[in-house]
Amino acid sequence: MVATPSHLDAKPLYRRLDSLFGALDPKLPQGRLIESFLEKFFELLREPLRLRAACVYGERRDDFELLKSTGDFGMTLPETLEREIPPLQLLYRHRVYIFSDPAVDTSPAHLGLLPIAPAAAIIVGKRPNRHVLFFVLADGWNMDELDFTLNTVRSALGSRLVDERVRGSFQQAAEIQQSLLMEEAPDFPGYEIACRSIPAEEVGGDFFDFLPMNGDMLGLAIGDASGHGLPAALLVRDVVTGLRMGVEKEFKLAHVFGKLNRVIHRSTLSSRFISVFYAELEDSGSIIYINAGHPPPLLFNPGGVEGLTSGGTVIGPLPEAKFRRGFARLEPGAVLVLCTDGILERRNLKGEFFGEDRLKQTIEKHRGGSAEAILEALFTAAVAFGKGRPWEDDATAVIVRRIST
Fold first, then answer.
1. What is the Rg, in whole angstroms, of the alpha carbon atoms belonging to the chain?
2. pLDDT tens, 147-168?
């Protein structure tokens, strides 16, 4: 009599499966991921699960196709499998199927029987992208233990596929975001510009942008979309695209923002909103800007500090919104600081905000340095204030320093 294999407890089995998943390429499409899973699963668990052979079927429009097989099926099993137990029939039953020798009463005779004992199948995925994994096992398995083990495998693999879909969504959002953010600030004669954006999660809702115009003017923007992930990334994409198109067509800023607000409000993301600050900086130091609900950028001139507040409400919630332009000027040696709430609302262990006053103190202390040095000092101060803890919100800043002449 063949000894019954001792079943694997859930935790050790999950640990083995985790190590298996870690060896897979996450960029593979689901079908290739499952094929690769089958090969590595067979290598890793062939001995403890006493596997003889395995294969995987992939769903097609009206049938299933044998994609991969591994192990010792014998001479006739694949043909027998396809003829007597087509995977399509399995899909109308439970998600774990156990077959054994025809003499065993527990076999589901209405599905046909294999000339081997025992065999089992699991189904993962959802229509129209399901896969059937078929296993041939050695004799002696206890039916309940086999059902437990394969359900654990199915659950782990199903969770992994969900994780990959979610990760794919985040990856897509990250790619959208990276396609919008410039890797470095542009050169603008007479000025130093430094910028940085740190998402609190894999994908954030902050952005900055620069639009060179005619060589003697530079458009610069910063914004903060509500939420995170793919919806926020799509909202940022729409706003950045709208700003760029409006500027290229030389529309007046108030008109650009009004139209952009209407478009965002009417979109499927109308329940969300985004704060935006946009300015056009001339090489002479003059600035025309609109602040649509964004934390006011701070302009550090030799004579004092000024908040750039003119504009209107955040973009999105209202069907109609009016915006007004503001004007300012960067004198030689002046520093303009644009940032998002992630920096201002950085908390310490007491729950206190980093706030505008600490930001001003940091800039005043380092304003004699380069734009890059000021940016570094700002992030260093904010990180230290939060005792090095992870960012609770996306943190973005742009520093513009007019070189003294």
1. 30
2. 666 666 766 666 555 555 545 5
User: Which residues are within 8 A (CB) of 347 and not within 5 positions of it... i.e. 6 or more apart?
Assistant: 353, 354, 386, 392
| 22 confidence band (pLDDT: 50, 70, 90) | low
Partners of 298 in the β-ladder: 307, 337
Count Cα neighbours of 293 within 13 Å in the Cβ-side half-sphere: 17
Distance CA 228, CA 242 (A): 20
**Residue with structure tokens 């995170």?**
228
Residues 136 and 41: their CA atoms lie apart, in Å, by 13
Question: Could you tell me how far CA 397 lies from the centroid of its own chain?
Answer: 21
How confident is the model over 23-50, as pLDDT tens digits? 666 666 666 777 777 777 787 777 777 7
**3-class DSSP state for residue 232?**
helix
State the pTM of this model.
0.61
Closest CA to 70 of 107, 118, 123, 34: 34
Q: Is the dihedral of CA 90, 92, 98, 100 positive or negative?
A: negative
